[in-house]
Amino acid sequence: MRLRGVGKRFDGGVEAMRDLDLSVAPGEFVSIVGASGCGKSTLLRVIAGLVPGSEGTVEVHGEPVTGPREDVGLMFQRPALLPWKTSLENVLLPIRVRRRITHDDVREAMRLLTLFDLEGFEHGFPSQLSGGMRQRVALARLMMTGAGVRLLDEPFGAVDELTRETLNLHLLRVHERTASATVLVTHTISEAVLMSDRVIVMTSRPGTVAAEVPIPLERPRSPEMAYSQRFQELALTVRRALGPSGSEGGRPS
Amino acid sequence: MTRPSRIPAPGLGRITAPTALGAAVLLLWDLANTRHWVSDLILPRPLDVAAATRDLFASGLVWGHLRATLYETLAGFGLAAALGVGTALAAGASAVVRRMVYPYAVTLQVLPMLSVAPILISAFGFGATAKIVIAALVAFFPVFVNTLTGMLDPDADAEELFRSLRAGRRRTFTGLLLPTAAPMIFAGLRIGLTLALAGAVVAEIVSAQEGLGFLVQRYSSQLNQDDAFAVVAVVTGMGLLLYGAVGCADRVIVFWRHAGRLPAGSRARERRVRRRLAAADRSTS
Ligand SMILES: Nc1ncnc2c1ncn2[C@@H]1O[C@H](COP(=O)(O)OP(=O)(O)OP(=O)(O)O)[C@@H](O)[C@H]1O
Ligand SMILES: [Mg+2]
């Protein structure tokens, strides 16, 4: 996946991104951090082909992106599950949209649900699940797309700290055993450092890459790494690149 | 001390609370008659109305009229439901259709139906057709507006999800827009059905040879208030039954909006998946 000089100006005149370069290799995990409103969601939407960029080129597997693609999967902050479908049916949705569901698809979906600790809830409806469980169903659905590029927009922003840690572990586990390129948008520096091979720091209006911090920690990663000296130094580097607090239109405290 | 409104107050339950209010109203009504606050010619005693209702059924007199009104109501409602849902789905799927039909749908709603009833009756005759048309006309708008509102309000994230999965127009329609609109469609159908009944009865009052509206009209012109009230009670009962029937359909079709129905739905789906997988295992081994 490769972006060259990508910019985006909305009809209302808001320039959300300017001259943004980014490339992510297969198997690589990249996090994007930046102040609220700096264009992170817009960036993911442009990569996913949901909104057209105003300038520059976006390529996935060497082909220019002109619209949504089967090999690009997306997950939002909200799980966006269909309330009339069970967990299993929600996970199977990406297949359902493309073709007839086979028995192997069903088994694969069940396997993913089990992998995300949702055994026993395969046939439950979203309203019967907790917030963290719904996110895991959404994550399983993303995996079910089989997409080589996975884009996650603050996927666990709305769940509590402990659940979030578990969800991140789930994500790490699947990432480390597949060769897809993953882009994670997050507000949490430690999360970005723990998960990624590289952290991209974005500045505000127009959004562009302010710094790239490589994270040379070994894999597989574990939550305990967050307490090591190396980790703390890397987190501090990212924090410094974000600039002094308050200068980016953050909320008054 | 205030309590959260979701927790029901102790003491009066789901059955006793409305029963208590109903009993109080009936008592007051009866007092109004026996104490001569209101003339017998205007307000009969509740027990007399009950007796008159029983006699209407016992003599078999009411059945033919009931059938006529039910037929007009259901036919008119069916027409309104088909046209209302159909037009709204088309309007929801296409902005051009929406702009085309919306002003006329509103005009139809603003039009006082009672004023055109005589015109429709002279056009369609004194039989059932005019009543069906009137019932359909009054029931159309709520069905149309509710369906359209439901169609235009899908979850933004879910819509983006469908787009990112490259779902086509048909798939998005059947897989997202239609189920999203379903609860609103049923809300519209509920209102539409009661309005269809009201439309049919009012049309019968204007001019008819049969039907419950015709009966009310005849009895009250004879100053026979017991029987007139009894017919109104029959119309009300019919309305409640029809309303309940749509409610049942709603619980079955829009099951995900009724928490109580989810466990049964889960079990049914689990059985289905199990059966399919088992069948697949047998055929491969
Ligand atoms: N559809 C749109 N039309 C006009 N402006 C938009 C639109 N979507 C986003 N913007 C603007 O683009 C800028 C970037 O928005 P974006 O949602 O990408 O930010 P973000 O980095 O994801 O923020 P957050 O961290 O709060 O999610 C904002 O100033 C926003 O107001
Ligand atoms: Mg965002």
TrEMBL record, chain B:
<feature type="transmembrane region" description="Helical">
    <location>
        <begin position="104"/>
        <end position="126"/>
    </location>
</feature>
<keyword id="KW-1003">Cell membrane</keyword>
<keyword id="KW-0813">Transport</keyword>
<feature type="transmembrane region" description="Helical">
    <location>
        <begin position="173"/>
        <end position="191"/>
    </location>
</feature>
<keyword id="KW-0812">Transmembrane</keyword>
<comment type="similarity">
    <text>Belongs to the binding-protein-dependent transport system permease family.</text>
</comment>
<feature type="transmembrane region" description="Helical">
    <location>
        <begin position="132"/>
        <end position="152"/>
    </location>
</feature>
<feature type="transmembrane region" description="Helical">
    <location>
        <begin position="12"/>
        <end position="29"/>
    </location>
</feature>
<dbReference type="GO" id="GO:0055085">
    <property type="term" value="P:transmembrane transport"/>
</dbReference>
<feature type="domain" description="ABC transmembrane type-1">
    <location>
        <begin position="66"/>
        <end position="247"/>
    </location>
</feature>
<dbReference type="InterPro" id="IPR035906">
    <property type="entry name" value="MetI-like_sf"/>
</dbReference>
<keyword id="KW-1133">Transmembrane helix</keyword>
<keyword id="KW-0472">Membrane</keyword>
<protein>
    <submittedName>
        <fullName>ABC transporter permease subunit</fullName>
    </submittedName>
</protein>
<feature type="transmembrane region" description="Helical">
    <location>
        <begin position="74"/>
        <end position="97"/>
    </location>
</feature>
<dbReference type="InterPro" id="IPR000515">
    <property type="entry name" value="MetI-like"/>
</dbReference>
<feature type="transmembrane region" description="Helical">
    <location>
        <begin position="228"/>
        <end position="246"/>
    </location>
</feature>
<dbReference type="Pfam" id="PF00528">
    <property type="entry name" value="BPD_transp_1"/>
</dbReference>
<dbReference type="GO" id="GO:0005886">
    <property type="term" value="C:plasma membrane"/>
</dbReference>
